[in-house]
Amino acid sequence: MKQFCIFFLLVLCAIAPAGAADLRVEAMSVTLTEHWERVKPAEDADAFTLNWKGRGAVPLQALVLRQAAEVKVTDQAFYDQMREKWNSSFGGAAAIGWMEMGEIRWLACRRPSHDQAATVFHLVTVFQGRAYSLLFFSAPRLNALPAQAMELVRRTHFGDHVHRWAKLRSFALRPPPKEMAKLVKEEEVRLGKAALLMGYVVEANDKAITWTFDGFNWSSGDRARRKKTPFSVQGKLELQAPEVMAAGLSAQLTLEKGSGKGMDMARAGMRLRDFCADQASFDAALEQLGKGVTTAMSKLLSRPGGGCEVVQTDRALTLEARPGETLRKALDQAPTPHLIVPEGQVHALVLELAMLKSDRGDQLGDSLLPDVWIVTVYLPSMAKPAQL
After folding, report:
1. Per-residue pLDDT for the chain (388 aa), expressed as one digit of tens each?
2. What is the largest CA-CA distance in the chain?
3. 279-293 burial by CB neighbour count: b if 16+ within 10 A, else e?
4. What secondary structure does DSSP assign to 132-178, as a single string?
5. Where in the chain are the domains?
6. Considering the entire predicted model, what is its pTM?
């Protein structure tokens, strides 16, 4: 199977400078003043952290969750669930009520932190079937939200029209049986006399790649004295990508501890790119992907501009997990979809997720796993404004 030509780069999020543009989470924008310092997040952080650096009587920190949550019930039922959750978790220590800022209505909970060292204000609102959260941490035993926090809430707004990406199709790509048999032979030759692969299972769908390897390791020394030790290795690479996305993707890599000496490390990569192309070429690329062939899509991704004026997006990350470890990382920003493109053109977003070869090329699975892919294609979608 022909593969995408892919080069994974680590993407780091920098601290936003003073007076920076809005902090964006899907449909929600938070306008920051120069007194809010945006802290550089860890790659797997679930929230943006903001520290208040201006004048104020009390210390203040804000968290903005980096991805909205899908609401599968009515808005009112969701708010009722949040009330029940807060009451169940904090009992009489939780003060719950409504806060209205312009047209936005927030359900707010004031409670002490778990260590009693701070007062936590948790605000949540639902917009177009997605729940957005703001959290503020300030001095203990505080009754009211500090004025600086109130101003940040006032500067939080939702656009009249929300530009999102809607998932079109996902493809699980793996070599056909004959090609897989060749890769097994290649794996056996590469392992040489050090190990013997007795059985394997490699599966893929649009959400995960899983694998199991069983076999024996041979001890070194004279052939007559060599002993074999069994090994069993299992692993899973999972994709968390919403059906409708404005920003926020994550991947999770798990390498089970297993038995015996099998894989010392599993390595995976995720890459997000957008491109413009004519409709016929785009349709042909999708048809090829459905047959497990990536040639046409690779060609489109190699000339991203196409017939549209787009700035090429190319964001990537790598994950490395050791036995018994689960690692999750996130790409927290997607490009803005172009809803107006020349007639007959398409602006698309492609997400690639795949296992990678180890740095030294000596790990179990280095021949079998990198030819298994998950490819997800998104197209622009525009949501109409909702009444809050």
Report:
1. 443 333 222 222 223 333 334 688 888 888 888 788 888 766 557 888 999 987 766 789 999 998 899 999 999 999 999 999 999 999 989 999 998 886 788 999 999 998 999 999 999 999 989 999 999 999 998 888 888 898 899 888 886 544 568 889 999 998 888 888 899 888 888 877 777 888 889 999 989 999 998 888 877 666 666 788 888 888 999 988 778 775 556 778 888 866 556 677 888 998 888 888 888 999 999 999 999 888 899 888 887 666 565 545 778 889 888 888 888 887 765 666 655 566 778 888 899 999 999 888 778 888 889 889 999 999 876 433 333 2
2. 82
3. eebbebbbebbeebe
4. EEEEEEESTT--S--HHHHHHHHTEEE-SSEEEEEEEEEEEE---HH
5. 28-158, 165-383
6. 0.57
Q: What angle do CA 34, 38, 40 make, to 5 degrees?
A: 150
How many CA atoms within 13 Å lie on the side-chain side of 30?
26
Q: What is the residue whose two structure tokens read 């201006």? A: 54
According to DSSP, the β-strands at 130-138 and 69-70 are antiparallel
Asked if residue 388 lies in contact with residue 103, where contact means CB atoms within 8 angstroms, the answer is yes
Two tokens, residue 91:
């009992």
Q: Quick one: tokens of 152?
A: 């940040």
Helix axes 279-290, 295-302, angle to 10 degrees: 140
Q: Are 84 and 107 within 8 A, CB to CB?
A: no
What CATH architecture is 28-158? Answer: 3-Layer(aba) Sandwich (3.40)
For tokens 């070429």, what's the residue? Answer: 281
User: What is the C-alpha separation between 143 and 382, in angstroms, rounded?
Assistant: 40
Q: What is the dihedral of CA 65, 70, 73, 77, to 10 degrees?
A: 0
